[in-house]
Amino acid sequence: MVINTNMAAITSANNLDQSTNLLNESLARLSSGSKIVNPSDDPAGLAESISLGAQINQTAAANANVNNAVSFLQTQDGYLQQVGSALDQMSTLAVESQDVTKTNTERADYQQEFNTLAGYITDTATKDFNGVSLFGGATLAVTTDANGGTFAMTGINLSAAAYTTATAADVSTTTGAVAALTAVTTAITQLATDRATVGANEERLTYTGDELGVLQDNLTAANSQITDVDVATESTNYAKYQILVQSGVSMLAQANQNPQSVLKLLS
């Protein structure tokens, strides 16, 4: 038996140090909710988690772009519905003005209402959404994925000839009313095509938005598997490390007392 070098105490101290480190790491995981507290915990997992985090943020941004584009389309269609109502009334006025029993004074009243409705359509053509023209006719490229892919959203032009010809028509005479009816009918046909275009754009982007939502959920779940701590398992480990630390402290104290038994040999 030796006094200067107490190997039992040294071994107990090393084991206690390891148990204390494990206990601290477990406590850090439980308090942070993450399995990767330090890069050294899982270097490969950390690298993958960083990549997944970037993809999640990019996908969320693309989804926001798509949702904004859908709102743009819904605003477009809301205006076009009202334009359709105006054109319907204008066509009615064009037919009523052709009534041979009507006087020119009455046709002048029809013309006044016709002009008011035409002015509404002309004004609608200038509307915008967050500073972007709703009816300028430009095709807009909507970002649809995290890689910068785009969808060409066909534009709607309320300044097209079909509309401007109708709004410039004159129903103050019977002859003019006949021509006005033809022009307004053409505008209604164009409006039907434009609303169908808006609907197709919205349908396409709605599918894309749903797809991006599912992708974002799956990426988040994958990242969770890498980084999120299993509280039940880690709590069990924490309890185990607590016992090891307490046991280590006790055994270190016992190991430090062992050399005192040498005194019995000297008595």
Question: What's the gist of this structure?
Answer:
The chain has 267 residues and is mainly alpha-helical. 73% of the residues lie in helices and 4% in strands. The strands form two sheets. The chain has a two-stranded antiparallel sheet. Strands 3-4 form a two-stranded antiparallel sheet.
What strand line-up does the widest sheet have? 1-2
| H and E string | HHHEEEEHHHH
- Under CATH at level 1, the class of the largest domain stands as Mainly Alpha
Number of helices: 7
The residue fraction in helices comes out at: over 70%
**Helix/sheet category:** mainly alpha
Count of domain modules:
2
Calculate the terminal CA-CA distance, rounded to whole Å.
16 Å
Strand tally, please? 4
Can you tell me the CATH superfamily of the largest domain? f41 fragment of flagellin, N-terminal domain
Rounded Rg:
39 Å
Relative strand content: under 5%
Could you name the CATH topology of the largest domain? f41 fragment of flagellin, N-terminal domain
What summary fits the major beta sheet?
Answer: 2 strands, antiparallel
Mean pLDDT, to the nearest integer, reads 88
- Principal-axis shape equals rod-shaped
CATH architecture of the largest domain: Up-down Bundle
Parts with pLDDT < 50 across at least 5 consecutive residues:
none
How would you characterize this protein structure?
The structure is a single chain. The protein is mostly helical. The protein has 2 domains: 7-33 and 229-261; 70-227, f41 fragment of flagellin, N-terminal domain. Helix content is 73%, strand content 4%. It contains 7 helices and 4 strands, in the order αααββββαααα. It has a two-stranded antiparallel ribbon with strand order 1-2. A two-stranded antiparallel ribbon has the order 3-4. α2 (43-96) packs antiparallel against α3 (104-124), α2 runs antiparallel to α5 (174-227) and α3 runs antiparallel to α4. The two termini are 16 Å apart. The relative contact order is 0.17.
